[in-house]
């Protein structure tokens, strides 16, 4: 295998220097207007090309995610057969004219055997070491497998921080969009080597859902070692669930966890969560096995199809709803709950009765009612040591008493998402 002649282009997108949140828009008497978050929508986002699974064969832009358990095992490292079979299916789809982004787990798992590790490490430093070794091995195999079909692949490494700040997720979109325009298949993974516990996705299923949203994909295909979602253990005669229109369709369904290979971090539960995230933000999703990849991309009746159940949302709010590490809690009175939840307004200090946790301006916080029910999440404009003196007071009063800068809202409506 002459991998040197099939060089992999590498686009590594890593977090920039973290700073405080950008100042919120000015708040006047008129309702705040949401500012478009990120680049203009991809044409496919305006008129979905995938009304149902049968139309997946004609989708223009597809994000495909494959899990560690489908590619690797502790004993054998990277499975050449599994990886080549997946590359064959995706390269065929790419050569038909579709744009494909592959979100691939497996870097940590691929690095276990070379480092003499028998199982996935629990400590972050060893995980990062394994990822550093395994990512190169994984990309070399992908370069060779796709190269056999005349398809170039690139490496794109992301962290959750890249979805937090507009400049970073805009840059990520532009890089991915340009790669697709050049006919490249970007291979995306979490940047495990530099990610910390606080800014990790935790699993690549949610990363895939956010990437699908970021690039305005027509569909998200989540692959694992299970061919579909079932209403119970498949070994006990459970029935396949072919179609999910919303969370109510899964009431009473027991969903499994980590795959049988024991090298991943997710499982069917995280795939269902990712499919729900995608469907809730305007993107159809399909959950099936890696062996069904070609059939799925051809629009055949395999796996479980998740129909769109919501509209496109700003990527930053999607991150806030599903990935943000909450640093504190704001307790709201009944009036503030109604204002935030029902009237969709910014949170003012007058409606806050208590503050818990330690946080800085720009950190994610939860807003709860007096009985502890979580109402929303948002990016707070003040540090936790600033807020106690502001509780129950109007912004006008605070501006006079504490000076300019204390007359802002606590959480702006553009930085707030209901949960």
Main sheet, how many strands, which sense, barrel? 9 strands, mixed
Q: Please report the first level of CATH classification, the CATH class of the largest domain.
A: Alpha Beta
Radius of gyration: 23 Å
- Going by helix content, strand content and strand pairing, the class is alpha/beta
Query: If helices are DSSP runs of H or I spanning 4 or more residues, what is the number of helices?
Result: 12
Strand order of the largest sheet: 1-6-7-5-2-8-10-11-9
Q: What is the average of the pLDDT values?
A: 82
Count the strands?
16
Q: What's the overall geometry? A: globular
Describe the fold and architecture.
By secondary structure, the protein is an alpha/beta fold. The chain has 2 domains: 45-319, Carbamate kinase; 326-418, Archaeosine Trna-guanine Transglycosylase, Chain: A, domain 4 (Roll). The protein contains 12 helices and 16 strands. The strands form 3 sheets. Strands 1-6-7-5-2-8-10-11-9 form a 9-stranded mixed beta sheet, with helices on both faces. The N and C termini lie far apart (51 Å). Mean pLDDT is 82; it is low at 1-48 and 258-266.
Kindly list the characteristics that best describe this protein.
single chain, 419 residues, alpha/beta, Carbamate kinase, Archaeosine Trna-guanine Transglycosylase, Chain: A, domain 4, nine-stranded mixed sheet, five-stranded mixed sheet, 30% helix, 19% strand, globular, disordered N terminus
């Amino acid at each position: 295998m002459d991998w040197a002649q099939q060089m992999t282009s590498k686009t590594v997108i890593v977090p920039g220097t973290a700073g405080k949140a950008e100042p919120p828009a000015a708040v006047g008497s008129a309702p705040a207007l949401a500012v478009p978050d990120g680049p203009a929508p991809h044409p496919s986002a305006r008129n979905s090309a995938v009304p149902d699974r049968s139309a997946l064969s004609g989708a223009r832009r597809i994000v495909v995610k494959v899990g560690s358990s489908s590619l690797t095992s502790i004993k054998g490292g990277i499975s050449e057969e599994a990886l080549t079979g997946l590359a064959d299916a995706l390269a065929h789809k790419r050569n038909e004219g579709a744009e494909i982004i592959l979100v691939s787990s497996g870097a940590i798992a691929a690095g276990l055997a070379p480092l003499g590790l028998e199982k996935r490490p629990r400590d972050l430093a060893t995980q990062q070491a394994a990822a550093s070794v395994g990512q190169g091995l994984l990309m070399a195999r992908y370069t060779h497998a796709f190269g056999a079909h005349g398809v170039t692949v690139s490496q794109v490494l992301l962290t959750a921080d890249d979805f937090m700040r507009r400049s970073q997720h805009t840059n990520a979109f532009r890089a991915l969009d340009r790669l697709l325009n050049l006919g490249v298949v970007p291979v995306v993974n979490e940047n495990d080597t530099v990610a910390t516990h606080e800014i990790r996705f935790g699993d690549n299923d949610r990363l895939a859902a956010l990437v699908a949203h970021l690039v305005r994909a027509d569909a998200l295909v989540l692959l694992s070692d299970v061919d579909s979602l079932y209403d119970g253990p498949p070994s006990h005669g459970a029935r396949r669930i072919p179609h999910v229109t919303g969370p109510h369709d899964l009431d009473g369904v027991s969903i499994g966890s980590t795959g049988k290979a024991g090298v991943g971090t997710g499982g069917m539960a995280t795939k269902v969560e990712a499919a729900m995230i995608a469907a809730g933000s305007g993107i159809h999703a399909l959950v099936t096995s890696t062996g069904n990849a070609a059939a799925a991309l051809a629009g055949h009746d395999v796996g479980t199809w998740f129909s769109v159940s919501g509209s496109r949302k700003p990527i930053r709010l999607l991150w806030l709803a599903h990935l943000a590490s909450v640093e504190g809690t704001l307790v709201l009175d009944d009036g503030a709950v109604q204002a935030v939840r029902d009237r969709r307004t910014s949170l003012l200090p007058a409606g806050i009765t208590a503050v818990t946790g330690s946080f800085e301006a720009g950190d994610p916080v939860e807003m709860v009612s007096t009985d502890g029910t979580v109402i929303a999440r948002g990016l707070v404009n003040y540090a936790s040591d600033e807020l106690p003196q502001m509780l129950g007071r109007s912004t006008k009063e605070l501006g006079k008493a504490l000076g300019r800068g204390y007359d802002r809202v606590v959480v702006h409506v553009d930085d707030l998402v209901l949960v």
